[in-house]
Write a structure and sequence with these properties.
4 helices; Ferredoxin Thioredoxin Reductase; single chain
């Protein structure tokens, strides 16, 4: 699968996984579920030009959306409370 900007989903997944692991995080082991999130991120990159968290509402204005650009500001509080982000 490729986004409108030509991004390959597998390559985007690999980049996200590598960045997460370098920071001490892990992506959800449910690969199908995780790929749905990757697709949502890719859609938002194509739509807005930046990887908006697909589980948060956005304005479409980068400055206003800084808190919901993946990894969003809500990741660590969600991990603390639910042991998972999204």
């Amino acid at each position: 699968m490729k986004g409108a900007a030509g991004t390959d989903a597998a390559a985007f997944f690999t980049r996200l996984r590598d960045e997460a692991e370098a920071a001490g995080y892990h992506l959800n082991p449910d690969h199908e579920f995780t790929m749905q999130l990757v697709d949502g991120l890719m859609t938002n990159v194509d739509r807005f030009g930046y990887p908006l968290c697909p589980c948060r509402l956005s304005s479409g204005d980068r400055r206003s959306d800084l808190d919901v650009i993946c990894p969003c500001d809500y990741r660590d509080p969600d991990l603390d409370e639910y042991d998972t982000c999204y």
